[in-house]
Hints:
The structure holds three protein chains of three kinds.
Chain A: H1 4-24, H2 28-53, H3 59-89
Helix pairs in contact in A: 1-2, 2-3
Chain B: H1 15-32, H2 40-61, E1 65-67, E2 72-74, H3 76-103, H4 109-126, H5 130-148, H6 155-186, H7 191-203, H8 206-227, H9 235-242, H10 245-270, H11 285-305, H12 310-331, H13 338-366, H14 382-385, H15 387-401, H16 407-421, H17 425-451, H18 464-482, H19 485-488, H20 493-501
Antiparallel strand pairs in B: 1-2
Chain C: H1 8-24, H2 32-56, E1 65-73, E2 78-84, H3 89-106, H4 111-115, H5 118-137, H6 141-162, H7 167-196, H8 201-210, H9 223-238, H10 247-254, H11 257-282, H12 284-311, H13 315-335, H14 339-370, H15 381-384, H16 386-400, H17 406-420, H18 426-451, H19 458-461, H20 468-486, H21 489-509, H22 512-517
Antiparallel strand pairs in C: 1-2
Helix pairs in contact in C: 1-2, 1-5, 2-3, 2-5, 3-5, 3-11, 3-14, 3-20, 5-6, 6-7, 6-11, 7-9, 7-10, 9-11, 10-13, 11-12, 11-13, 11-14, 12-13, 12-18, 13-14, 13-17, 13-18, 14-16, 14-17, 14-20, 14-21, 16-18, 16-20, 17-18, 17-20
Amino acid sequence: MVPLWMYLFVAAALFCIGAYGVFARRNAVAILMGIELMLNAVNINLVAFWRYQTPFVMSGQVFAAFVFVVAAAEAAVGLAIIISIYRNRRSVIVEDVDLLKW
Amino acid sequence: MQLPSLSELNLGLTVPALSLALWACILLVIDLFIPRDRKSVTAWLAAGGVVFAFIANLLVYRDPGVAFMGLFVADEFAGFLNIVVLLTAFIAILMSVDYLKRTGIERGEYYVLLLMTTSGIMFMNSANDLAVVFIALELLSIPLYVLAAFRAPEERSEEAGLKYFILGAFASAFFVFGAALIYGATGSSSLPVIVDAVGRALAGEGSSLLLLLMGSGLILAGLGFKVAVVPFHMWTPDVYEGAPTPVTAFMSVGAKVGGFAALLRILLVALPALTVAEGDAVAGWQTATWVVAALTLILGNIVAISQTNIKRLLAYSSIAHAGYVLMAVAAAGTPGVSDQATRAALIYLMAYMFTNLGAFAVAMAIEKDDGSGTSLDDFKGLGRSRPLLAAIMAVFMLSLTGIPLTAGFVGKWVVFQATIEAGLYTLAVIGVLTSVISAFYYVRVIVNMFLEDGEGDPAAAATPYVQWAIYLTFAGTLVLGIIPSLVTNLSGPVALAVASLVP
Amino acid sequence: MEATGLSLVTVVLFLPLIGFAIMLFMNERTQAGAIRWTALGFSVLTFLLSLGLWALYNPDDPGLQLVQRINWLPDYGISYYVGVDGLSLLLVILTTFIMPVAILASFRSHIFEERGREKLYYLFMMLLEWAMIGVFVVQDLVIFYVFWEVTLVPMYFLIGIWGAEQRIYAAVKFFLYTMAGSILMLLAILYVGINAGTFALPEIIAAIQTGALSFPFDGLFSTQGLLFLGFLIAFAIKVPIWPLHSWLPDAHVQAPTAGSIILAGVLLKMGTYGIVRFCLPLFPEASVAWAPTIATLGVIGIIYGAWVSYAQRDMKKLVAYSSVSHLGFVVVGIFALNAAGIEGGILQMVNHGVSTGGLFLIVGMLYERRHTKAMEAFGGVWKALPLFGAVSLVIVLSSMGLPGLNSFVGEFTILMGTLGSNILGFVFALFATLGVILAAVYMLYFYQKVYMGELDKEEIRNLEPLHWSEKAALVPVLIAIFLIGLQPAPFFRSMDASVDALVRHVDESVPEVVVGNLQMPE
């Protein structure tokens, strides 16, 4: 069987890739995707921990399910805000959104 | 697997928080039938919901317990913070009614979202499981993202929403990743179970300890974003400036209360025994919070000096005040002082709530309909045109500075006392020195109001609702400052709240 | 010490606040005169009641008298705890004495024509009086800190709203300076209180005397030394002890006349009083160890203040720097650490309040008439207003320390104390005496420039005679000058018991050999 640490490793890598995406991408939608990647990394972790450590208690799985839901809700709100900005400025590049100093 | 029966869930205890969320959903429908020009009805209905939750909370308060099989605790700690949050929500609604009207963004959804996020904060206060903390965190954050962008298509507000969203979602991801690691290290996400597992993990192999440390570090970072402490503070000034002012006011208090509630509960219930090395007397996170608190105090107060916009100034001041609360959190890492330090944090939050909401309310009164007029120069001459309003604002500023006979002094006092008791002398000295720095920029507001002359009446927008909000917070600031025993009493509400958290 | 019932001290303390509340509901436009009179009435009433304190006070009892104690924050060991003893009685009376004088001095002031807001002005005066009396009567460290900080706020506004051209700069400087010092004191207070388990000063001192509580001392910068400094720096800024004095000339020059009178008359005394009340009994070893250093700074202040005074061409600046010089005297007296030095110090605080308050009063009156503070603009005032000139001469001579007038008594006692002290000794007394001589130089220079000389200026010849309210303000000052100068015995007697107890406490805490040989453990 695949050992636990491999899952953790993949999850950590995914999390870092997501975080990199948030910092490096200029397109707001791409940043949103980075955040989704990070949340998915969490899911891998949760499910792996559940399977390997406490397979008879459901809490890890339930936690993962909640993370899906939240990720979906966040994406919905995030996209709504991005669309509203796009309507106004015809751009979703975060550097263009600079009325306030960062 | 045996499913619990409905009576075992103890749903009654969740009524305060749950009723608010439900009422928000119902209000969304009711709002459809309220004509466009009479949206203040929605505001009153929303305020009614807050009052109901407030009363329900007082009832639950008297009979604490655990609901949802241990996921949700309705203890005095949650009860006390719920009071703070519900007061915040009520005052925010008072501030909003006329503001929304005159800035042309009067829509019923506003109040629905406000109730939603309030309910999220209340869940946060009660959450006893990392998963619930996460859900509550999102229930608190997502409506706030929308509220921050509520003046859309006004560009600055949209921008505030986007920034808050990106950094908030990013921080949530950190938090939940940390929660997953702690779950992995201890095999449970329930806080009271974790505390036992931490002991075993420390005694056992090193890899669990590593996961635990990484996990708690990530959780600290995630919640640090929410309460805006250095180095996770970058979003604060932009979002505070761009968001509609009542939202900023609510955010500056409500989100912080929720964040600190979760932080205190996680650190003190789940991780008090988390020590880095064998034989350490203090919790391993004390050093981290210590350093973060010191950085927050220094940066928040120093950068605030150069601000010229009252909303940005209050944003940096709110960063600084998060630093003072964090001082108390750091002190709580010393066993034996944790109860006193927690008490200090709660008292500070309450004092800060009144004062900061009041300051924002006055700032809102001088704001123009188009969102301009929030620079410090706009305060000039307020002392002449509106002596009472200016005097009250002066008291708020003095309270934020920590001058005696105001709530702010009592807050600082208990925080410094806890810090010294915990032996963190350097941190205490940093705390007082930065207080002196803070006097510099708070006093400047007073200078502008009383000592400089301006033209006309800057506070044309001080409508009756806003004035009520100001009087309410002013009364709170003074009462807390003059009769602090109301909250500092050892058998009083705060002490009970602490006792329910720290055994 | 009975602690129940209403103490007269509480009445005296809260009377100004009652005046404040009444004035709050008066209308500025229609009742301007009534506001003025209410303020004066309450301040006079407070003064009369504080004379009642003197009558009720038993000078043979060294402890606190007329005590009242009410729990404020019982769980933190904080209580509203007031009372007077020999150290504070005179200063309470000084405060209540100066306030009516300052209010009378404002009656005819031009500042309201320029800036208005007369009601606010008197409201702040009442608030200030309340806070200042509070500083002198409370015996709880925390409440003391509360009053200490509260005095800042009204004074800040008095300078900032009704001051001269640079008022905002001066007000902010005053605020930040004082706050920076006092906030360190807050930490020291916390440390002391947490270790003692109470914030009530008499209980803490009792614990130190019985040995139940002690702050480790082994060198100037040990725990006790640092605590001592925490308190001392706050007080030193207020006094101000050289080199922390730079806020004072700005504040004095910019403040309105009444503000200067109160600043010089009472606020500065809060610093020296704090040293006597808190630093000495709480940290006896550190006080002895630091005494030579602080007294040296005091001596530098005496000479420096006098020297700079002499160089001033602005009357208000001259008087302001003379304060630095006079307060240096008080500091030297206190750190002589014997009964004569401390008693002289306390009496000199009162004397300085009266004399310098009087000086600011006459400078204010001159300024009202000519709208300038430059000495060149005057000359020959004596001939224009002979009575005013005579009164001014008395006040100037009093400030110089002429025998028979009040300051002489204080300065002489301080010099005796310094000579008799086994910590300070001859050299300090020598330099302090030099200060007396210099005082005569700059004071006479001032008098000669302004009052003497030919009546060659048209404006001086037409100088407006004194208004009745100005005369009324000068009379009590003159009475006090002669009373203390000719009958000092009762004043000393009121302090004897308490000061003796204090000196004994300090001596007993420090081994005899150590005091005698000045050998402090390293």
